[in-house]
Amino acid sequence: MRAFTLAAVACAALAHDGLPKNPELNVPGYPDCVQPVKGGNEFTLECFQKPRENKNQIRVGCVGDSITAGVHSTGGNHTYPGQLQIMLGDGYKVTNLGACGSTLLKNGDSPYWKRPQYTTLINNTWDIIIIMLGTNDAKDKGSGGPPNWPHNCTGSDALKCPFAVDYHSMIEEVRKLGNPTIYTMIPPPLMKKGTYGMNQTVINDVFPTLVPAINKENNLPHPSIDIFDALGGADKASFPPGGCTLQTSKVADCADFCDQQSCDQCHPNNNGYTALAAAVKKGLSL
């Protein structure tokens, strides 16, 4: 049984507070994992790379947080990695390595680096790795969350800030895993200030410039995939002040976050995850 500390469990419970749980895993979302421990949590998961059916299949790993894990989707193929698998077809094998509540920051309240999904990532080889982290890093005390965000990631020294430094470390680790093609992604917009303790300014104003700058600084061969604009970020001036509701579904891109199936200010609904996957496919030029 994988060891875990009471502090880690408490931290994870805070990160996942209020999110619907996948009953098979006892955690939010639908990563490619199994839960071997009755009543276990995200630290007792055993995750796996989707097995190839033939040696020619291209192995794709989707690294991320609850948005990658597919929280507030209806599961199955409705997560963005699940939709991406359908769009790419049988020549690809897509693995969902989303870890709900996780941060890219090594000193964040729930680092991706300490999650079973990261262990699966680094213990396999890949052809394509897609990284979308940052949403939980944007939490801060002023927004009602843990003090994750360092608030020194703008200006001339932005690429020296802890988020950029740890992003570089992640890219360097991934480069060792069979020399995959690496893509960074700008996370989706936050539709309401303070949701889940997240700083809306960081997500909606800092990440759209910081992530591409990190991408360029690390000499990645392709531009960052812009999920922010794909899910309505370009219309941020039109975001409803109180967040998306069923009554504002035609405002900005609220329809991808709020409908009868799900209404959340951070996680897309099924339609939103399909739009996200389509943007990823376009960004991969596939």
Quick synopsis:
It is built from eight helices and nine strands. It is α/β, with parallel strands linked by helices and 286 residues long.
Task: Please provide a written account of the structure.
The chain has 286 residues and is of the alpha/beta class. The chain is built from eight helices and nine strands. The protein has a five-stranded parallel β-sheet with strand order 6-5-7-8-9, with helices on both faces. A two-stranded antiparallel sheet has the order 1-2. A two-stranded antiparallel ribbon has the order 3-4. Helix 3 packs across helix 8. It is globular and about 50 Å long.
Q: How much helix is in the residues?
A: 25-40%
For the biggest sheet, the summary is: 5 strands, parallel
Distance between the termini: 40 Å
**What is the string of SSEs from the N terminus onward?**
HEEEEEHHEHEHEHEHH
Layout of helices and strands, plus pairs?
Elements: H1 6-15, E1 21-22, E2 27-28, E3 33-34, E4 46-47, E5 58-64, H2 66-69, H3 80-88, E6 92-98, H4 116-122, E7 128-132, H5 162-175, E8 181-186, H6 200-217, E9 225-226, H7 227-230, H8 270-283
Parallel strand pairs: 5-6, 5-7, 7-8, 8-9
Antiparallel strand pairs: 1-2, 3-4
Helix pairs in contact: 3-8
Please give a handful of descriptors for the protein shown.
9 strands; 286 residues; alpha/beta
